[in-house]
Amino acid sequence: xxxxxxxxxxxxxxxxxxxxxxxxxxxxxxxxxxxxxxxxxxxxxxxxxxxxxxxxxxxxxxxxxxxxxxxxxxxxxxxxxxxxxxxxxxxxxxxxxxxxxxxxxxxxxxxxxxxxxxxxxxxxxxxxxxxxxxxxxxxxxxxxxxxxxxxxxxxxxxxxxxxxxxxxxxxxxxxxxxxxxxxxxxxxxxxxxxxxxxxxxxxxxxxxxx
Amino acid sequence: xxxxxxxxxxxxxxxxxxxxxxxxxxxxxxxxxxxxxxxxxxxxxxxxxxxxxxxxxxxxxxxxxxxxxxxxxxxxxxxxxxxxxxxxxxxxxxxxxxxxxxxxxxxxxxxxxxxxxxxxxxxxxxxxxxxxxxxxxxxxxxxxxxxxxxxxxxxxxxxxxxxxxxxxxxxxxxxxxxxxxxxxxxxxxxxxxxxxxxxxxxxxxxxxxxxxxxxxxxxxxxxxxxxxxxxxxxxxxxxxxxxxxxxxxxxxxxxxxxxxxxxxxxxxxxxxxxxxxxxxxxxxxxxxxxxxxxxxxxxxxxxxxxxxxxxxxxxxxxxxxxxxxxxxxxxxxxxxxxxxxxxxxxxxxxxxxxxxxxxxxxxxxxxxxxxxxxxxxxxxxxxxxxxxxxxxxxxxxxxxxxxxxxxxxxxxxxxxxxxxxxxxxxxxxxxxxxxxxxxxxxxxxxxxxxxxxxxxxxxxxxxxxxxxxxxxxxxxxxxxxxxxxxxxxxxxxxxxxxxxxxxxxxxxxxxxxxxxxxxxxxxxxxxxxxxxxxxxxxxxxxxxxxxxxxxxxxxxxxxxxxxxxxxxxxxxxxxxxxx
Lengths: 210, 579
Description:
The structure holds two protein chains of two kinds.
Chain A: E1 3-4, E2 26-27, E3 33-34, E4 45-54, H1 59-69, E5 74-81, E6 87-96, H2 98-110, E7 114-119, E8 125-135, H3 139-148, E9 152-156, E10 160-167, H4 169-179, E11 184-189, E12 193-195
Antiparallel strand pairs in A: 2-3, 4-6, 4-7, 5-6, 8-10, 8-11, 8-12, 9-10
Chain B: H1 22-32, E1 37-40, H2 47-52, E2 59-62, H3 66-80, E3 84-88, H4 92-107, E4 111-117, H5 133-137, E5 143-146, H6 153-165, E6 171-177, H7 178-182, H8 207-219, E7 223-227, H9 229-233, H10 237-247, E8 251-253, E9 268-271, H11 278-286, E10 289-293, H12 299-302, E11 313-318, E12 332-335, H13 338-348, H14 356-368, E13 373-374, H15 383-393, E14 399-402, H16 406-414, E15 423-424, H17 435-445, E16 451-456, H18 457-463, H19 467-472, E17 478-483, H20 488-497, H21 513-520, E18 523-527, H22 530-542, E19 547-552
Parallel strand pairs in B: 1-2, 1-3, 3-4, 4-6, 5-6, 7-8, 7-10, 8-9, 10-11, 11-12, 14-15, 14-16, 16-17, 17-19, 18-19
């Protein structure tokens, strides 16, 4: 028993905080030990993560719910079938510092329907499609921009012209800027679909998941 | 033994359930998995599964509330190491399980939940007692599934049991629509429980990484082992004990790992964190190399990460790669099963660190920061004294469960735990009301070991209806309510951080818990002075059945040491004026 009959004090005995030994080191907010003089900061970076998943009900909800609940910053998410029946590819573009990208990949791998996760190189083969509807007052000028961006006119009428542009994110952004002069009425962007460049596999998949 | 629910022994050799329906397949899958106890509450959509239990040898404990069923299953899982199974109907039955599942998820406890669901054709129509259970429980389960076929529902259940218990343990759920459980199947025996082929938990760590880690450990001057709940989960306590004692390395545990290392051992610094011992927090703050095993570096353990073990190189052993460098960066990540990796580390480590001076320092801290408390005879009873009195009167293998709050901290600080799976509490989620239903689950799993539940008046009032279950099933548990007529931890924070403005924290109207116990058919006792303690402890622990001790404690007592939320572990406060 450590009951002390005589003492009348609140709390416990011992040296006060300012009397104690102190460590010399320090960590940053991400729990990484740093030299206090030159605390390293991780800047957010744009990263493309590709997940090969079993096409089960709820898998998209699981992935998007995971990103939401762990506060991963998501720029775009696309999903679609693959060469193998019953499996889909989810392409996520995230904006996170290195530790966040690592966490996102690891947490994705824990979801049971997720077969394989890979972060694609900085320069993956990535394309996006945008459909946009502009005012139809200047059809020739619209056509010129569309040709400049290798686009296609999908629908044209007296009031509006609807075109599609495909390309990398930067090209789409540029095209949207160029169309802005005509009065953009509506835009639908798909978000990026991507594969790893060259012979690199986007997903390593064995026979049980094809 | 009166604690064992009635039919258990008689039907232990019952023949396996014959499978004609989905519900039969569910029951057969549980039998195949070796499940012998279930905790649950009946209801419309789950009735076919209950009906299939009629001829099964499994024992079902009917709980008063589904939350109690989930906590009982959780505690069963903690004490036995095997998944605890809970059952509930659709809608409110399922949503009442959610707190217990979230609790199990935070503490990686193995739990399987089976929920009834409206017939498939009604799903999505807002039918009576319909809830999107898979949607609701997704974020708080390791895995969950909507069973859509009577032919495969048995293997769904088997998979859920396997997933709950393998790898990093956790709660799983199978949602069982009534047409599926009522549906006929000709598939027969669903077979042994099996995890899906995509599920491949790591076993051993990369040997090269192990070599790098042991080099750092061997070279350390101030090494410490931080044992987390994963050590208990992996059954790695023997490996931990021999490694630490062979190499003379002091051991700190997290709260979920209480009991992984004997607290009366010279190398034990007990547990660290917000209300951990001063010596454990000093050791974590000053160490230069930490072997952290099976811990997720929860914020209640680390305080602010900027000041957590800032001089330490960290060797982090975990079965879940996502825990590596999640909160605190690992210098040496060792991904694998705690027992297997500790064996690897032990085998590779030929040189012990020269830590003699460090061990002396740790001993000195133990002397400098004793857990002694003041207990004048003319003042109300101190809660710490009540905890110690029960500890002294009971066997070393006694299982202790708790609710959440000040009483939980006193129980964990002042009970001396020496064996794993004797400490059953709600850590990550901090679920008030966990203690009593957990004591019921622990009682069923603990064979003939004593079970003592420490509760607070606030916690006890949240789930005290489960006393009816303990009486009905004649379960020998002793509930000790450390009654300060307040949600004391909240009041302690109000004193420290809210200028003593006691909003909604004082309970001037608490019932007489001893009389309440008698009304339930349990035995009630009361402690109001030191003189009564010895006799009450003896009578309550001797009583062969559920008893409740209403211990009126000093309402002014607070929990110390204390590291304020996000604070520096090394600057723990020993009293309120240091906060």
